[in-house]
Write a structure and sequence with these properties.
The chain is built from 15 helices and 25 strands. The chain is of the alpha/beta class. It binds malonyl-coenzyme A and adenosine monophosphate.
């Protein structure tokens, strides 16, 4: 028996004529197209020399063909490695060196630059309209493919997440991690073949790729694919849709739109939120306007989804609900891992079939983040209330979540500190009305250095993806430090607290 993710998804595919993806420009792809298209692409990858276990790195715009490519990789037994479209060449160079992909599929505009990188693999292209060399290579191939057999523990994907030390780590996700989580979510959130999901998330992260796409595939449902978030387009699609998955910024932006009404949302059965904290105020405002209680859930790249508010019971604002079936929680003391009594605040540790296999080629980092009994240390500070609801009250990791994207301060600080005229810097997240948290930097200049905010941002442009760039840079005489010499970021956060909220 083939235990591959694809085999487990396919077991639920509906009639081949059923629509799988419809784009907002009216393109339609059926389940039959999905089977044939992913088979052709799998043949093309094999013809390019791809072998089971190889990595296929992909940095492309959102399109139905990008989903076919993802499925083709899984069918060929390779690990799919999607990359944020915002990553710069400098960032890509690191991923290529670390993951050693057999093939890199990119936008045609990036082809020459990527091919010129040191140790660049074979480069193929795919554009936003679903055209490119990889599609040309697939065009005349057979529409069926003998899927490579995989064990549950074999890799299906690698997703890079930045780290507190500044170096990105590749989270290795297995066939079982992804398939089991999709199976659980389909049941927990009551997805069926009648569902039509509004899909406006990027498809290079857990949320848009695994939570949204795998769940709809596992249910045999359909998706309306939008290249990006646009409130007008989303509201216009609601009468044909049943569900939407979003980050909190989706909901605050929808609430600013006069078209968000009870009537506009009357055909919808489910709105979910995750990737960043949803303010209880947003939850209430959304219910007041639409009558829908947003269902908030909680996950991580390393663990897929861990917790969710209930579909039927009370969806409690400001909480992320209960552990999903099969997922075990332990609220623990940070240093020892000792379990704390219910109601106390500690670090969340999780164990279950959803939890990743480890970091790609980083055994020490993997060992440091797992307990001996298999629990993974999330770094999220949590509390479980008397009714069993999980509250995320903070983060032990130095991480900023901006509009659902993670920014690790260390990575940005390293780039700023390397600039001429900079003594040192501290990067912090400040309350931001649109992105939840906005990235800001406090910089200490060398005596006499003329460096200004614009110059720093200009220098960072080609080095870091734009969403990681500070939206404000402040100059300070020195960084506040405690007696141990550790930078007190909380002091900086208090000092600059309202810079984004007051515009
Ligand atoms: C865009 N920009 C951002 C940003 N997104 N800056 C900070 N944070 C972000 N999230 C920058 C752009 O580069 C641009 O800068 C400027 O902000 C304005 O862009 P915009 O047009 O307003 O952005 P938009 O395209 O509307 O995107 C905003 C967004 C998007 C919130 C819709 O970021 C988004 O789709 N986020 C979802 C991320 C996600 O899927 N996360 C899941 C991770 S998985 P400039 O300088 O270029 O003009 C995970 C696990 C789990 O966390 O539990 O799910
Ligand atoms: P990522 O590394 O992108 O997978 O981000 C995972 C982190 O996002 C988690 O460790 C949490 O800190 C945060 N996160 C995800 N969902 C939620 C949520 N619903 N509420 C608060 N934080 C969340």
């Amino acid at each position: 028996m083939n235990n591959s993710l694809y085999a487990r998804l396919r077991a639920h595919f509906p009639d081949p004529d059923k629509i799988f993806i419809e784009t907002d420009t009216g393109r339609r792809l059926t389940y039959g197209d999905l089977e044939a298209g992913s088979a052709r692409l799998a043949h093309a990858l094999v013809a390019r020399g791809v072998k089971p276990g190889d990595r296929i790195a992909v940095q492309v715009q959102k399109s139905p063909e990008a989903i076919l490519l993802y499925l083709a990789c899984v069918r060929a037994g390779a690990a799919y490695l999607p990359l944020n479209t915002g990553y710069t060449l400098a960032e890509l160079s690191y991923f290529i060196g670390d993951a050693e992909p057999a093939v890199f599929v990119c936008d045609p505009k990036m082809r020459d630059a990527i091919a010129a990188l040191p140790s660049a693999p074979g480069v193929e292209t795919l554009d936003a309209d679903g055209r490119g060399t990889i599609m040309d290579a697939a065009a005349d191939r057979p529409s069926t493919f003998d899927d490579v057999s995989r064990e549950r523990d074999d890799l299906a994907a690698i997703l890079y997440t930045s780290g507190t030390t500044g170096r990105s780590k590749g989270a290795m996700l297995t066939q079982e991690n992804l398939a089991s989580n999709a199976e659980v979510l389909v049941r927990y959130w009551r997805f069926t073949a009648d569902d039509v999901l509004i899909h406006a998330l990027p498809i290079f992260h857990t949320h848009g790729l695994f939570v949204a796409t795998n769940v709809l595939l596992m249910a045999g449902g359909s998706m309306i694919f939008m290249p990006r978030f646009d409130a007008d387009t989303i509201i216009a699609a609601m009468p044909r849709a049943t569900s939407m998955m979003g980050v909190p910024t989706f909901y605050t932006r929808l609430l600013e739109h006069p078209g968000l009404t009870r009537e506009a949302t009357s055909h919808m059965r489910l709105f979910t939120s995750g990737s960043a904290p949803l303010l209880a105020d947003t939850h209430r405002a959304f219910e007041d306007r639409t009558g829908h209680r947003i269902l908030e859930r909680y996950g991580m790249t390393e663990t897929n989804m861990n917790a969710s508010n209930p579909y039927e019971g009370e969806r409690r604002a400001g909480t992320v609900g209960f552990p999903l079936p099969g997922v075990e929680f332990r609220v623990a003391e940070a240093e020892t891992g000792r379990a704390l009594p219910q109601g106390e605040t500690g670090i969340l540790e999780v164990r279950g079939p959803n939890v990743f296999k480890g970091y790609w080629r980083m055994p020490e980092k993997t060992a440091a983040e797992f307990r001996a009994d298999g629990f993974f240390i999330t770094g999220d500070i949590v509390k479980i209330d008397d009714d069993g609801y999980l509250h995320i009250v903070g983060r032990a990791k130095d991480l900023i979540i901006s509009g659902g994207y993670n920014v690790y301060p260390k990575e940005v600080e390293s780039e700023i500190d390397a600039l001429a005229g900079v003594v040192e810097s501290a990067v912090i997240g400040l309350p931001h009305p649109d992105f939840g948290e906005g990235v800001a930097a406090a910089v200490v200049r060398e005596a006499g250095a003329k460096l200004e905010e614009d110059a720093i941002l200009a220098e960072l442009q080609g080095r870091l993806a734009r969403y990681k760039l500070p939206k404000r840079v402040f100059f300070v005489d020195e960084l506040p430090r405690n007696t141990m010499g550790k930078v007190q970021k909380n002091v900086l956060r208090e000092r600059f607290d309202n810079v984004f909220s007051t515009g």
